[in-house]
Amino acid sequence: MKKHKRGLYALFIVLAFIAALIILWGRVRDEKALNTVELSLDYDSYSDLCKEEGIPLAQGFKDASTAGITSLSVNEMTLDQLQDQGKLRWMTGSQLADYITLSGTDVSNLNIDPSSIYVFNCNPVIEKAIRSYFSLMEKKGILTDKTMTIGSSGKESGGAKTLPVMEIKGSIKLLPYKGLGFDPEKTAEISNLGFNLNLRPENKPDASADQIKDYIAQINKIKGVTCIIFAGANEVIGYPTNLDATVDGFKQSHHLSLGDVETPNEKMRQKGATYLAQKLTDRVVRVQSIIPQYLEKMLPEDAIDIFRLGVRERNIRLIYLRPYTRSVDRVSVYQTNIDYFSMLKKEITRYGFTTGAASRMPVKNPPMILVILISLGTAGVLLLLLEQFHYDKGIIAAIVLPASVILPAGLIILGKIGLAQKLIGLPLGILFPTYAIVSAFEEMGFIETRKKLIQVLGYAVKMFLKISMITMLGALILAALFSSTEFMLAIDRVKGVKAILFAPPVICFVLYYLRGSANRQSLKDILSSPIYMWQGIAAAFLGLIAAIVAIRSGNADESLASNSERQLRVLMEQLFWVRPRFKDFMLGHPAMIITWALTAMNVFGGMGIFVLFGAIGQADIMDTFSHVHTPVIISLARTVSGMLIGLVIGVLAVTCYWYGRRLSAPKKAA
Asked: Which secondary-structure segment (H or E) carries 91?
């Protein structure tokens, strides 16, 4: 009966794997089709660069286009910026009063408000755009027209002059820098140059829902617009109360994409961005940029490495470029940037991508029946793990198996597929590597000691591959479970990633002393033993390693890494196509090889430590595939290369130990 139950549980795992293969087949096709990357250049900073370098704007943008730039990103116009460009003039009320007084005019009857802004000498096109903006987005009475009479009517004074002005009420500290819509001359110029247009509007916290919806509708009418990437304060338009109006505005036009800017962590994400992305998943394009203070510290090739990794490994499809403000390699600043753009395009296309309007991922979720099969597979591995400790009472299976079907089915029917995926994913991620290792402990009690090095290595490699294949099976099932567009675009994230990374090593370490070799100490003996100084130092060292693993796990911002670390990553990528993870091949996998080599040599002292470190490598396989916004082929290549390198390092370590032990062994007397 026990054998039949194990067979049934194993069958559930096989069915889960078949379901995973079906899902992953479709996912790989979608990821391959997502192959167009948009290179978007910041218009204002590049224009300033061209002016400083004495390059005509038309020539500058033509060269940028030839180098690979496909779109230009534009911020909203501001009074301060327009004045710098000579398109209007503005003064505060007190400044205007002083200006008129200098002309000999009495200002007492002009009703000038010192706390307002006055705009005059305005370009007609810009004036029309400003009026349109205030009519659409501001309350009545914020902008009013006035006429100021300057000078006296006498012939000697040259006669009185009238000055039409727009009086704008608001904070004189904030209003000059407030976004007032988009410069129609600038957007028309960009369209005529043949670029796509990315707009960067700011939030309008005082605007009503209808105003926000109408504003986005107005944006949709601008020729050449393909994407909105929110700017200004760290908020999207409509935050916090009118986000649905923003969603409605986007839905008025199918061609408008939503640029979702990648951040190192969720807390740094723009407020309201997650809500918009969840409502507009079919419009989301992942955006990557490097902030100026980091960009200026790195060489162009370092920036290109960062962007390439984003495109290949994190589904980045729009690169937001800011130009360098310094020269590199003894060429001009201007040529530095043209070379930078050209090298970036070349590097991206080298990996099979094309440049153009950013690809958008179709919205998909795994079918309910396949999610249920994966849930049953997770229940199967749990029950198999319990079988290892003879917890084979039928009541557990009678509860777990129906729950693994009813719970996900109910949540999916209620439209909560993301919650179902997370509830299944956490135990799945912990159980597979744990079972893979613990199920192998059974061999430790009766294994025959190997007498030859080749036998030791053969057994260690066999056990390492056996354990890793079970873990890999679970990792592929995990990747399939979370193959929803929201997870693949990092709109939603797998919960409990740290638990998936840390729980299996701790559990395996404890269970080794409950279930492992007969030559081990019991957990009770270990806990009742005195602690020596060397043990305290070892514990601190292990804690340091754990802290480093915790900090460096996940997808940290590449721009925060040191130059030497970035160079090492690039070298690893060039050698192995995809960079393997260091804690896999430098720590986890060699430790797993050593674990079973020592077992084959009947050496069990300190084995628990090797089990602990070996389990880190297995847990990290699951962790790798839990980063769902990384294409599954990349995760697979990363894992396999890490296993192969770790295997080689482990074999070398065991070989050195074998010969070192023989050399240090006391020689027998003749």
From this structure: strand 89-92
